[in-house]
Amino acid sequence: MSKKKGLSLEEKRTRMMEIFFESKDVFQLKDIEKIAPKQKGIAPMTVKDVLQSLVDDNMVDCERVGTSNYYWAFPSKALHARKHKLEELNKQVSEAKQRKASLQKAVEKAKLGREDTNERSSLMKELTALREDKTQLQAELEKYRECDPEVVEEMRKSNVIAKEAVSRWTENLEKSLCARDNCQRSSPYHPQMQVKAVSCKEEAICGHDPETLTSSLC
């Protein structure tokens, strides 16, 4: 046995309106929440949302008295609402017809001079062939783009700039190496400085009297 299909939103709205029309009474939300499920088969959890949708569409009136909201709807109001809705729909239909007529005129005007004649068909074929030739020529031009004088000149300028940049980098590197080498040479731990120190000691030893040197060493 297939499961029973639930009511759609529009069906719930219609059944809830029947509650107001049949009773011609004023209700609170708690009253509707009791009546709608029992008499109209509307799910209790959806009663409040359905009622609010009717209020938003001006199909049900709502007024707050004290701390409670009261809801009512009479057939005369519903009839007036339907008439108003019908007027809006008729207006939309009229505007749509006007737009359609305007578009048809525009289409007819655009067709002028574009009738499907032998001459037009021939011209269209020629236009298609010319477009294909243009595409092919553009592809061939792209192949020889490297031979374009402007492109060659741009490449030459780029090479000059690159060469100047390499020269500057090399010069800076040489200056840096020279500065570092001079710093190392001035250090007492550099080999040249150590050789120089040994030579000075030898000269000092050779220039002293042996006895004096021996006594100083002792």
Gist?
By secondary structure, the chain is mainly α. It contains eight helices and three strands. Mean pLDDT is 77; it is low at 212-218.
Describe the structure.
The protein has helices spanning 9-23, 29-40, 47-56, 75-111, 118-143, 149-185, 191-206, 210-217, and strands at 27-28, 61-65, 68-72. It has eight helices and three strands; from the N terminus they run H-E-H-H-E-E-H-H-H-H-H. The protein is mostly helical and 218 residues long. The model is unreliable at 212-218 (pLDDT under 50). It has a three-stranded antiparallel sheet.
Provide key terms for this protein.
mainly alpha, 8 helices, 3 strands, disordered C terminus
Strand content: 5-15%
Q: Radius of gyration from the CA trace? A: 51 Å
The end-to-end distance, rounded to whole angstroms, is 126 Å
Strand count: 3
| Structural class estimated from helices and strands | mainly alpha
Give the overall average pLDDT.
77
How are the strands of the biggest sheet laid out side by side? 1-3-2
Order of helices and strands: HEHHEEHHHHH
Globular, elongated, flat, extended or rod-shaped: what is the shape? elongated
Number of helices: 8
Major β-sheet profile: 3 strands, antiparallel
Classify the helix fraction into a percent range. Answer: over 70%
Can you tell me the residue ranges where pLDDT is under 50 for at least 5 consecutive residues? 212-218
